[in-house]
Amino acid sequence: MYRINPPGVYAHESAMTEPRLRARVERVAAALAPPRVPVVFTDEQLPELIWEGRWTEGLKPMGTLPEVRDPVLVFSTFRFDGKEAERGAWFDQLGTGIGGHLRNALVGGGAFHWFPAGLKEDPYRKEKVCRACWRLHFQVGCLHRCAYCGYGGVLVTMVNVEEYIEHLDRLIERHPWQLTYLLEDDADVLCLEPELGCLGPIIEYFGTLKDRYLIIHTKSANVEWMLPLKHNGNTILVWSLSGPEQSRTLEPKTGTLEERVEAARLCQEAGYTVRYKFKPILPITGWREDGARAVATALTRTRPDVISLCTFMWMECAEMVRRVGRDRFDPHFLAAAEAAADTIGGLRTAPFPEDARAEMYEHYLTEIRRWNETVPVSLSTESPSMWRRFEDRLGMNAANYVCGCGPQSTPWLRQLPCSAWQGVERNDQGLRGTW
Ligand code: SF4
Predict the structure, then answer these.
(1) What is the Cα 364 distance to its own chain's centre?
(2) Residue 271: how many CB atoms within 10 A of its CB?
(3) Where are the beta strands (DSSP E) in 50-95?
(4) Element (H, E) at 379
(5) Which CATH number characterizes residue 315's domain?
(6) How far is the CA of 365 from the centre of ligand 1 (A)?
(7) What is the 3-state secondary structure (H, E, C) of 174-219?
(8) SS3 276
(9) Could you give the CA distance from residue 118 to residue 116 in angstroms, rounded to a whole number?
């Protein structure tokens, strides 16, 4: 696992009762630098610890902090007792300033999240194209310190993986239309392994299934421990890649470009399916050369089954500048984002206007085709109009594209056989851990 020195190390009492769970906590705590003994806490003690330990200080976009430290480390369990909402309501009235997925994890919930992208209940379905599915969670928080990201500050990891897998098994059985399951978009789950000992059992569980796949999304190079696992070809690893300059300056604790690609090569050799997302494509000074290097490094050393492209999105221009720093940008793209702020600010695809995003995609597509003429390339969380603009060139459209973490994007598929929303139905009545 990574060498880290968290400002505080805590374990919920539920993580310390069973010897198997406790051993996971103790292995990680012993591998910290220096080794630590976790503070064991109950639900009632949690708010005091949050206030005393100033947990919320690091819960800001990391590029906006004067100093970024390793996150507070919290071990806990999913409780699967049907009382997550009750505990959540109790937690909310305390006013700790912690919400969202981190709050869910701190009250022992949030294992399986229904993500309704593109369905009627998705308020953003006209702004971005993505796929409805269940998403898996096991951790919240990250060690990588990406400047544009807010997942530093606190890292909660669950430790009761055997119980988690039992509930996951029921969820999978109820959703025959969902073929792949993404773990995780709130954390990078490779960082505490193999000491944590939770990801291996999840990979090997998927290895026992027929035509169901685990997708792990990462920027880490910590893979050697997973090479001998019995994955049975049912785990797909997706690396987000960026050029060497972006990774060095803005993603300081991730694997470098070279390290991520070497990790992908090792996994490919060990029989895992390997994919890439060039994400987020940030038009920093020299981004064309940076991107070309990333593409060449990846495609001369490995054979991904699919590639997705995604420019920097999800926020207003001023907020992006606050996180990344004005001086880092290619002036042409910064000017385009600033000029568009009044018209596209607030859209999911902001801050860059469509023409600027298309220019970035054009560049990456050209570079990809230089090295690989056939790998499917799709757009990630792009607008319907961007899809119309690129569909002929990509040979796929908004309804049938394959991508890095789509629920029907099984290994080496070149196009979905039907619309991504055909047959999609939520069916979790009576199951535990869903939200
Ligand atoms: S790797 Fe992902 S989750 Fe981790 S800090 Fe970077 S952007 Fe955030």
Answers:
(1) 22
(2) 12
(3) 72-76
(4) strand 377-379
(5) 3.80.30.30
(6) 24
(7) HCCCCCEEEECCCECCCCCCCCCCCHHHHHHHHHCCCCCEEEEEEC
(8) strand
(9) 6
Helix, strand and coil content of the chain, in percent to the nearest 5, comes to: 35, 15, 45
pLDDT along the chain (435 residues), means of 10: 97 98 98 98 97 95 96 98 96 96 97 97 94 98 97 98 98 98 95 98 98 98 98 98 95 97 98 98 98 98 98 96 97 97 90 97 98 98 97 97 98 97 97 96
Where are the extended beta strands (E) located within 36-160? 39-41, 72-76, 112-116, 132-136, 139-140, 154-158
Structural domain includes residue 115 = no
As for how many domains the chain has, the answer is 2
| Rounded distance from Cα 255 to ligand 1 centre (Å) | 11
**What's the angle, vertex CA 405, arms to CA 212 and CA 166, rounded to 5?**
40
Q: 290-293: long-range contacts (C-beta < 8 A, 24 or more apart)?
A: 290/242, 290/243, 290/244, 290/245, 290/246, 291/243, 291/360, 291/363, 291/364, 291/367, 292/243, 292/363, 292/367, 293/243, 293/244, 293/257
Query: How far apart, in whole angstroms, are the C-alpha atoms of residue 382 and residue 365?
Result: 15
Residue (of 205, 168, 214, 174) closest to 432 by Cα position: 168
Structure tokens at 389: 């603009």
* CA-closest residue to ligand 1 atom 3: 187
Task: Tell whether 224 and 279 lie within a shared domain.
Answer: yes
Cα(220) to centroid(ligand 1), Å:
10
Diameter over CA atoms, the chain:
59
Q: Kindly state whether residue 374 falls inside one of the protein's structural domains.
A: yes
CB 128 within 8 A of CB 382: yes
Quick one: 261 and 390 in the same domain?
A: yes
Could you tell me if the CB of 146 is within 6 A of ligand 1? yes
Domain co-membership, 164 together with 83? yes
Range of the domain at 392: 120-137+175-424
219 CB near ligand 1 (under 6 Å): yes
Helix and strand totals (H; E) in the chain:
13, 13
End-to-end CA distance of the chain: 30
Tell me the CA–centroid distance for residue 204 and ligand 1, in Å.
Answer: 25
Is the domain of 304 the same as that of 374? yes
